[in-house]
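Fig. S4 source data, part A: sequence.
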Amino acid sequence: MTLVFIRILLRYLAAVLVTRGLIAPDLGEMISRDPDIAMALQVASGALIAATAEGWYYLAHRCGWAK
């Protein structure tokens, strides 16, 4: 299910970049339809969420919030 949301996010991101003239329309279509890019974004978002959780855990122990 997460992959579906990421593909939708990629479509909107590509549309914004194309309308602002930052990328070519062909490249925008490739970004929004390529499953490898969607999978890479899903892995990166999972790593970011895990890093945020671990950072919060470290901060909680350092500040004495985890008792």
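Fig. S4 source data, part B ends here. Residues 2-63 form one domain.
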